[in-house]
Amino acid sequence: MRYEKPATAKEAAGLLAKEKGAAFLLGGGTDLLVKLKMGMVEPDLVVDVKHIAKANEIQTTAKGFSIGAAVPSARLTEHKALQKAWPGVVEAANLIGSDQIQGRCTLAGNLCNASPAADSVPAMIAAGAKAVIVGAKKRRTVPVEKVATGPGQTCLGSDELIESITLPKPGPRTGDAYLRFIPRTEMDIAVVGVAVCVTLERGRVKTARVALGAVAPTAILVPAAARALVGTSLDDEALEKLARACSAACNPIDDKRGTVEYRTRLAGVLAKRAAKIAFARAGGKS
Amino acid sequence: MSNATLVSTVVNGDAVQFACPSDESLMTALRDRVGLTGVKEGCGTGDCGACSVTLDGQLVCSCLVLGVEAEGRNVETVEGLAQDGQLHPLQEQFIEHAALQCGICTPGFLVAAKALLERNPNPNETEIRYALAGNLCRCTGYDKIVRAVQAAAKDMRKAKRR
Amino acid sequence: MTHDKSYVEKDYKVVGSRVKRPDGIDKVTGKARYGADASAPGGLVGRVLRSPHPHAQILKINTAKAEKLAGVKAVITSADLPDLTNGDQGMAHILENCMARGRALYDGHAVAAVAAVDEQTAAKALKLIDVKYKKLPHVTDVDEAMQPEAPVLHDNMFTRGVEPAPTKPSNISARTQMGYGDVDAGFAEADVIVERSYKTEQTHQGYIEPHACLASVNPDGTAELWVTTQGHFTFRNVCSTLLGLDIAKLKVTSSEIGGGFGGKTHVWAEPVALALSRKANRPVKLVMSRDEVFRASGPTSSTSIDIKMGAKKDGTITAAVAEMRYQGGAFPGTWAMLGCMTAFACYSIKNNRSVGWDVVVNRPKVAAYRAPSAPMAAFAVESTIDVIAKEIGKSPIDVRLKNVAREGTQAPYGPTYGPIGIENTLEAVKAHPHMRAKLKKNQGRGVACGFWFNIGGQTCVDLNIGIDGTVNLNVGTVDVGGARSSMAMIAAEELGISYDDVKATIGDTASLGHNDTTEGSRGTFSSGMATIFAARDAIGVLKQRAATMWGIPLEDVEWQDGQAIAMGDMHSNLPALTLKEIAAKSGRTGGPIAGHNEVVADGAGMGFASHICDVEVDPETGRSQIVRYTVVQDAGKAIHPDYVEGQFQGAAAQGIGWALNEEYIYGDDGRLQNPGFLDYRIPVCSDMPFIDTKILEVPNPNHPYGIRGVGETSIVPPLGAVGNAIADATGVRMTHAPMSPPRVLSALDARDAG
Question: What ipTM goes with this model?
Answer without folding.
Answer: 0.98
